[in-house]
Amino acid sequence: MRRRDFLQRTAAGSGWLLTYNSLRKGQRLLAVEASPAAGLSRVEARYYDRLPDREIKCRLCPRFCQLGDKERGFCGVRENQNGKYYTLVYGQVASYNIDPIEKKPLFHFLPGTMAFSLATAGCNVACKFCQNWEISQMRPEQVQSRYLPPEVVAETAAHYNCPIVAYTYSEPVIFYEFMYDTSLQVRRKGLRNTVITNGFINPEPLAELIKVVEAIKIDLKAYNQDFYTNYVRGELKPVLESIKQIAHSKVWLEIVYLVIPTLNDDPKEIRQMAHWLKTEIGPDYPLHFSRFQPMYLIKNLPPTPLSTLERLRDIALEEGLHYVYLGNVPGHPGENTYCPNCGQLVIERYGYTIKKISLSGNKCRHCHQTIPGVWS
Amino acid sequence: MEKVRVVIIKSRRALAANGQPEPASMLRMFRKGLEVLTGSSQAEEALRLIFQPAENIGIKINTIGRRAISTYPETAVTLGLWLGKTFGCEDKIIIWDRTNEELKEAGYRLSRSEGSLRIMGTDSYGIGYGSQPVINRSVASLFSKIQAELVDSTISLALLKDHGIAGITGGMKNYFGAIHNPNKYHDSNCDPYLADLFEIDLIKKKHRLTILDALRVQYHRGPAYHPQWNERASQLIFGFDPVAVDVVGWKLIENLRAKKGLPSLSEEKREPTYLQTAENLGLGLARLNNIEIIEEEV
Known about the structure:
Strand order of the largest sheet of chain A: 8-9-11-12-13-14-15-16
Radius of gyration of chain A: 20 Å
Oligomer: heterodimer
Order of helices and strands of chain B: EHHEHEHEEEHEEHHEEHHE
Structural class of chain A: alpha/beta
Largest sheet of chain A: 8 strands, mixed
Radius of gyration of chain B: 18 Å
CATH class of the largest domain in chain A: Alpha Beta
């Protein structure tokens, strides 16, 4: 099967079954075909402490789950088995697709390229508005998975000419070991790694992850703890710390903020957030305001009004951020990149499609202002 | 306020020399427990007061601890067979838990045959979980189709254990095994999640009876098995009020802990506060002075 055919088959809906069937029919995907049946893996987890009486304490994310024998963490995919902690999802891929990198969204990272994107079951938060709850809020035995070990992921991405592998959809932090090892294999193939995450991870594992990936997109769910408590079941502060840690590394960073009407769309808070971002990480990391669609447990609210998105974008620009985008509004000028110096259009987008790039290397073609990002 | 009745049935012959429950003793304990609980002199009549003849009855057990610390097959199967015999159709009785693997490792022999007791996990072929979350207050979960669709009424035949987060695990927490995401509901001593879950009609309206298996009680460092803190208590605890039964189980665990010189659960900051929350939701009574505890020995 040619890559174009594959994409045509998977473009609409990008559902697991469609992709799965498409790949099954692919004659050249021998590695995938030959893989053993999916189930629960049993690979020792990293970042945990052994405690007396066969208990363990997980140090991967700020929950620090302390678990007795046979118990699983909040994520549902890491289990204490007789005092040893295991990840149950190593290589157990519940969803994979080839997506434009703009879908992540990463707008300043190899625009117009495709990312081999994958996820396992599980998540370390429980957002009431989750778009992928059918895998993120499940235990691995409750979803259909396919065994794709790290080398197969790298081979498959290369085979389909995807220069990027994206760990996404559910929450890659919870399949850390698989993501980390896959990243090494991906790099060996000359490809690049991106992580689409909630940023709810401890500094130590994040520091190691930063060494093996090229870009991270963080979903900042709100700029107040109450929202994190009531709608996310997480904490804001560690996410802000992760943002700072990534921004101070060599990894490219973008931030997405899903705007949910009446819940996290207070202009005052958005102004505070934009101010914090500019102060702590500078004006050059893109911030995306995405449009909410009623989903999962929040079906009683309407989609975000366009006027709200535009207003919040204006606020962030007023606060001095250089690259503020709107998402899930195809055709809106807020999808485009404008040079902060001369104001000219440098990347024109329509949804996930790149229509025009007016960059010369990493500089605006009009005024030669450097546009930060990873462009080649 | 009228007190609710909780019945403790003890038997020195509950456990055989090998430490396993003795089925004949189990049956005697079940019979006595239901007679005392209902005030009936006939155990079968007691069953008929609780269940309708045409109902499919689920016996929800707890097998997460495998053979070492699960609801004993000798206990659950004895109850299932007795129910089947009383109502004349064994295959209307379903002994169940989350997974077939856990059931097998706990010593159960799976069965879905017509005419015989059904023993199966939610992950059995063709079963699984519902496709849309059921939402109540803090909880949003997919329900096992066994609980949601296959059974009309349920018995929570739970193993009584100390629990490092919840304080205790008993009849109410047993229903965590009926949803797909219990891992999301262990924060803050499982409070208010356990009460919120039980309040859902799929549980509240189907739940008829709690029987706590307190034959051997893990009174410390639970829910995992640690033989040094596992005590032979040789009793079953019966009640219609799901909160009151767990309160009596909690008291038993506290007594065992005190006897062994261990701090109370509240001193360890893991008092099962979800029981009071459950009372606040009208699910039962959580104060000991509102509970009439009757102890008998067989």
